[in-house]
Amino acid sequence: MRITLLKTLVLGLGVMLLSGCVKQEPKIVEVEKEKIVYKVKAYDQLEELVLDLANQLQSSNKLGATLPNEIAITAFVDLHQLNKTTKFGRVLSESFYNELFLRGFNILDFRGQHAISVNANGEFFITRDVKKLSKEVKNSYVLVGTYSSFGKGVAVNARIIDNSDGKVIASARSIYNVAGNCALFENCPKVASTSSHASMAKPMTKTIKITTDNCSKKTCPK
């Protein structure tokens, strides 16, 4: 009896471990555009989203075995505001430095300074201060990306563009399942700050005026 019970427990534990190791497949989202339905993969984890986009860029590369040379990576931007990015856009673009490099792409980081900056906070080389950057960067291709709200998720598009003529060399698209993460997209509603002095405000008081009714002790009625 004990042996049978032990076997049952071991078998059950093994099934649980195996089920935990099985990777969940991404959801498929149908996107309708001009009466044409597209099926797009949707991911719950940012890491899985980046991996899928990088794989798509690699497989859709028009140059085939000859990978694009000197790709400059730019921040992913809001589709409706192409000169604005957020924490989400910066994390995406930074992740592609690693993913494309591992796939054999020649990546160029143009944020390097002419010299290493050293101060009390540490040592730094990359910067966004245009005065410290090189005036000109020689690159052949540019990775650009956009994101836009899509239902309860965010549609993310990425492509590699030929810097000389604007032709698209590779393209990718996926959905990131995220609902209301305002911190990641830096669009949280502003909360009015309450000053500590306001909570210590003095209570309202009334002022009472005292008059003599225009009389004196001799003339006032008794």
Keywords:
Rossmann fold; 5 helices; elongated; 222 residues; single chain; alpha/beta; two-stranded antiparallel sheet
What's the topology here?
Layout: H1 2-21, E1 27-33, E2 36-43, H2 46-59, E3 71-73, E4 77-78, H3 87-102, E5 107-108, E6 112-119, E7 122-126, E8 141-150, E9 153-162, E10 168-177, H4 182-185, H5 196-199
Parallel strand pairs: 2-10, 3-5, 3-8, 4-8
Antiparallel strand pairs: 1-2, 6-7, 8-9, 9-10
Describe the overall structure:
With 222 residues, the protein is an alpha/beta fold. The chain has a domain at 24-108 and 137-188: ABC-type transport auxiliary lipoprotein component (Rossmann fold), CATH 3.40.50. It has helices spanning 2-21, 46-59, 87-102, 182-185, 196-199; strands at residues 27-33, 36-43, 71-73, 77-78, 107-108, 112-119, 122-126, 141-150, 153-162, 168-177. The strands form two sheets. Strands 1, 2, 3, 4, 5, 8, 9 and 10 form an eight-stranded mixed beta sheet that branches. It has a two-stranded antiparallel sheet with strand order 6-7. The longest helix has 20 residues, at 2-21. It is elongated, with a radius of gyration of 32 Å.
